[in-house]
Structures are given as structure tokens and as C-alpha cells.
Design brief:
With 301 residues, this protein is an alpha/beta fold. The protein is built from eleven helices and twelve strands. The relative contact order is 0.14. This is LysR family transcriptional regulator.
Length: 301
């Protein structure tokens, strides 16, 4: 029986993840021509083009998309089989950790986490991507993301979850905003236009529900994708910005000309957690990442 070249499996996994011959070549420490030849061998082995040209980009064929999860799972299993879990040399780990994380965590801890990784796993790469609601659970199960850091919510029964820290929402406005000349009441809160932070364009949430119970309604005048865009838009306007306190205080510490205020309405606190699939429970490098994240969060409690 002739066995297939299993190196092609790893190459295919990286090609499917990167969607680029040049990027895959860099990941595998190969030249672009060598990676192109490897893609040619994959095509010959599978009897499928695998990738086809669409404008200036390569896009996977239906067969490649159908194989993606199977290929990723096979590579992960082979890696675990060939790696002595308790004897992994973290300094030699070259893997890429795909982490879906909300902006609060990334804004507060990404710098310190990268510093710790540079010391413990200098050859590893950290890739942050924004949350995508229900898609995140399936990506955890398929192994396409290693870790999910988000506000606590229901995940699959098999998913491991660990609390990190709890934050609450406060209000932010430019230093000279007229709202600071009076007592801040629910009516004052609803009087001024608001900025909403949402990658999916949402303009309502818990604040609107509470104001609605009081017979009030706010006007969301601006929707932006990131907290940093929201803060800079705030500096030149009379808009108000409700946001997580941890992130708001980091903006204040950066010397920006803003002031924080207590929201005059009752809102629930927001617990943040990290979640992972059981396949990574005993993985030494993954365990180091989880423990380091938890430790960083504990330092600020």
C-alpha cells in the first residue's frame, strides 16, 4: 500500500487558513515557488483545483471547503500524538493561537499578554479576531479558534469556561460637556445623543430597555465598530458614550480630555470569561496561555 505524503496535509491546512500561497509559504518557511509546487502536488493528490483565481485572490473550491474541518482535526490529532504534552519546550513552540476576544480584553491586556509570550513562547503568534456571536461556538468545536474571551453567555455543554473579571458600564463625555453642569438624571441621559459601539451595527441594548421602563428613549446618533473610534469621535462632540468601566478608565489614564460619570440607571454588571474546547485541556502551550490570561486579569482585581 502506498501511503500519501502527510506533509501535504499540514500544507493544505495552512493554505486553507491563510487563503494565500505567499502567506502559507511564510508560515512554512518556504519560498513562494516551493509553496506553489506543494499546492500543485495537493491538487494532483486530491484530483481537485483546491483554490481557483477570483480577481486577485485565491478562493477555495467546494471540495476544499468540505475538507477544511476534517483537515484541521487531522492535523491537531497528529500534532498531539507526536508532542509529549508534559515535556513541551515552550521556547520552541511555533504555533499560532487564534483568539476571539472582545474589545475590553484586547484593550486592557493584549500588550501585557504579548510581553509574557515574548518571554515564554517567543516563536508563537497571537491572532486576535472580534466576536461573532453564535459562530464562535462552532469555531471552538471545529478548532478554528483556540480560545474565546467574551461576556459570559451560554455555550455548548462540553465547552470549558473560566471567569476572568467583572466590569460595569459607566458614561463618558468630553470634559466641557454641558451634562456636567447639572445633576445627571435619566432624563439628562436621554436628552443627549449617544454613541453605540457595535461591529454588527446594533443601536439598542440594555440601556434602552431600562430607559424604556422609565418612559424614556435615547437617540443613538453614531454607531462605530471599536471603542477607540468612539472615544475620538467623543472629543469633538456633545455625544455621550456608555462603555465598560475598565476600558473607560484606561482612556482616562491615557490623558484624553474626557470625564466619566455614573449612569443614573440600574444596569447589570458584565462578567468576562475565557472558553475553550476540551481537546485543548491537556495541551501544555494552550494551558500556559489560559493560565497567563487568568493571572493577568487577577493582577487588576
Amino acid at each position: 500500500m502506498k501511503y500519501p505524503d502527510l506533509n501535504l496535509l499540514l500544507a493544505l491546512d495552512i493554505l486553507l487558513e491563510e487563503g494565500s500561497v505567499a502567506a502559507a509559504a511564510r508560515r512554512m518557511n518556504l519560498s513562494a515557488p516551493a509553496m506553489s509546487r506543494t499546492l500543485g502536488r495537493i491538487r494532483e493528490t486530491l484530483g481537485d483545483p483546491v483554490f481557483v483565481q477570483a480577481g486577485r485572490k485565491l478562493v477555495p473550491t467546494p471540495r476544499a471547503l468540505a475538507l477544511r474541518d476534517q483537515v484541521r482535526s487531522a492535523v491537531e490529532q497528529a500534532t498531539q500524538v507526536l508532542t509529549p504534552g508534559e515535556h513541551v519546550q515552550l521556547q520552541e513552540v511555533t504555533r499560532r493561537f487564534n483568539v476571539r476576544a472582545n474589545d475590553t480584553f484586547v484593550g486592557l491586556y493584549s500588550g501585557r499578554l504579548l510581553d509574557e509570550m515574548a518571554k515564554a513562547m517567543p516563536r508563537a503568534t497571537l491572532h486576535f479576531a472580534p466576536e461573532e456571536d453564535d459562530v464562535d461556538v462552532e469555531m471552538l468545536r471545529s478548532g478554528r479558534i483556540d480560545l474565546l474571551i467574551s461576556a459570559a453567555r451560554q455555550l455548548g455543554p462540553e465547552i470549558r469556561v473560566q471567569p476572568l473579571f467583572t466590569t460595569r458600564f459607566v458614561g463618558m463625555a468630553r470634559e466641557e460637556h454641558p451634562i456636567f453642569s447639572l445633576d445627571i438624571t435619566p432624563e439628562q441621559l436621554a436628552q443627549w445623543g449617544h454613541i453605540s459601539i457595535s461591529r454588527r451595527g446594533k443601536d439598542s441594548g440594555p440601556i434602552d430597555r431600562v430607559l424604556g421602563e422609565l418612559g424614556l428613549r435615547r437617540q443613538v446618533s453614531l454607531i462605530v465598530a471599536t471603542p477607540y473610534s468612539a472615544i475620538f469621535a467623543l472629543l469633538d462632540s456633545n455625544l455621550l458614550l456608555p462603555m465598560p468601566e475598565h476600558l473607560a478608565r484606561s482612556a482616562l489614564a491615557a490623558g484624553l480630555r474626557v470625564r466619566l460619570f455614573e449612569l443614573p440607571i440600574p444596569l447589570e454588571t458584565v462578567p468576562l470569561t475565557q472558553a475553550w474546547h476540551p481537546r485543548f485541556q491537556q495541551d501544555a502551550a494552550h494551558r500556559w496561555l489560559r493560565q497567563t490570561i487568568r493571572q493577568l486579569c487577577n493582577e487588576d482585581e
